[in-house]
Write a structure and sequence with these properties.
Number of domains: 2
CATH class of the largest domain: Alpha Beta
Oligomer: single chain
Shape: globular
Low-confidence stretches: 286-290
Radius of gyration: 22 Å
CATH architecture of the largest domain: Alpha-beta prism
Helix content: 25-40%
CATH topology of the largest domain: UDP-n-acetylglucosamine1-carboxyvinyl-transferase, Chain
């Protein structure tokens, strides 16, 4: 594979068996909990991706270094801010890529400062890099804006379990990505921590973590979403993909893939081997006088990482939609709202942004022509590369630029996709 681009031209048939990577979201939380617990629990099936390697280094050899560079991992930046703030007697400078230094961290820093943490900005106020001098923190009560990133809340929760007074977090405003907060709560329960979660308050009770004999990380539902998109866009009416080992009984919020992709013609069934994806016949396509389609309404505030793949599939199927709850996309690896609008235009699809967090699409409002051989920019964003790959069903010869960005979460993505080429 050329490191600068990959050209995709799929075979007509889609029959595949896929072994998905472990969840990087669960892996990150399990590693932080293990470190906070100061124990050597056996963590099985950890994700092998850039984000997890950054976390492993920071918690291992990185503990001995003054400067800890976590690259492009926003999860590591937020969780390690919390972890290093609790390491009494240690001092670290936490930094990352140029894009990481543009991603806000202020609400989390303010919350930890209110609890007595010693954290200072080395550059622009409210953004990394951070100088963190670890202290013993007693806990208590703190407030934080909940609409920006659920990772701020998860970071506080995991650290709060070791505070002598526990921690009560007042969540201000609409809570973003609540399923990720619930994921954190359930993982903490695995290590014996009791907590209470209501609409606007999280209480982490004191008592600390307890060792577990073994914890196995689930497979990644976020990674599964790109296979849902591949089935949705495939011209093969007999298309099927077995996602081996994946289960609908998951603590991951992105396990809602089945519900979101159902209007796009993807059927889901659970087998002994895993999740089987198949095509659902489109009855409207057989009608001689198809009626205008009602727009699909997608609420994405609980699962924003699924937005890109869903946008690409729905628009290329000419499904009108309104997708809301996308406010957090602006502070991801790139401004994903702007990136989607720009790259979908290359495919002849005009997306419209309404307010801060809504995208709409109507197939009757085409105002641009698709490029003859579109080149998709990926903006150093793994999800842009994977979300646009299925578009090759509609655009044979589609070129994805800088395909190596997928190593952030799904290093084997192009190898797995090779069965379709």
């Amino acid at each position: 594979m050329n490191t600068e681009t990959i050209t995709l031209r799929f075979r007509p048939q889609l029959q595949a068996v896929v072994d998905l990577p472990p969840s990087k979201s669960i892996s990150a939380r399990a590693l932080i909990i293990q470190a906070l617990a100061s124990c050597s629990d056996r963590l099985h099936n950890l994700s092998d991706c850039d984000d997890t390697r950054a976390m492993l280094h920071a918690l291992g050899e990185g503990r001995k270094e003054m400067v800890v560079d976590i690259g492009a991992s926003g999860t590591a930046m937020r969780f390690l801010t919390a972890f290093f703030a609790t390491r009494e007697g240690e001092e670290h400078l936490l930094t990352g890529t140029p894009r990481m230094l543009q991603r806000p961290i202020g609400p989390l820093v303010d919350a930890f400062r209110a609890l007595g943490a010693d954290i200072t900005y080395e550059g622009q106020e409210g953004f990394p890099p951070l100088r963190i001098r670890g202290r013993r923190l007693e806990g208590g009560r703190v407030s934080i804006a909940a609409h920006i990133s659920s990772q701020y809340i998860s970071a506080l929760m995991m650290a709060g379990a070791i505070f002598p007074k526990g921690l009560e977090i007042q969540l201000e405003g609409v809570v973003a990505s609540r399923p990720y907060i619930i994921m954190t709560q359930r993982l903490m329960e695995q290590w014996g921590v009791r907590s209470e979660l209501t609409d606007h308050v999280v209480k982490v009770l004191p008592g600390g973590y307890h060792p577990v004999e073994r914890y196995s990380v689930e497979l990644d539902w976020s990674a599964a979403s790109y296979w849902f998109s591949l089935v949705a866009l495939s011209p093969d009416v007999h298309a099927s993909v077995l996602l081996r080992g994946l289960s609908q009984h998951s603590i991951q919020g992105d396990s809602v893939c089945g519900r979101l992709f159902s209007p796009l013609g993807v059927g889901v069934s659970e087998t002994e081997e895993g999740i089987l994806l198949t095509k659902i016949p489109d009855e409207s396509s057989s009608s001689t006088t198809p009626s205008p389609q009602e727009p699909c309404e997608f609420q994405m505030s609980d699962c924003p990482d699924l937005a890109q793949g869903l946008v690409v599939a729905a628009a290329l199927l000419d499904k009108p939609f309104s997708m809301c709850g996308l406010e957090s996309l602006k502070i991801k690896e790139t401004d994903r709202m702007a990136a989607l609008i720009s790259e979908m235009a290359k495919l002849g699809c005009v997306l419209r942004q309404q307010g801060e967090g809504t995208l709409t699409f109507s197939p009757v409002c085409h105002e641009s022509q698709a490029m003859p051989l579109p080149h998709i920019s990926t903006y150093d964003d793994h999800r842009m590369a994977m979300a646009f790959a299925p578009a090759a069903w509609k655009f044979p010869g589609l070129v994805i630029e800088h395909p190596g960005v997928v190593t952030k979460s799904y290093p084997r993505f192009w190898d797995d996709l090779s069965c379709l080429l």
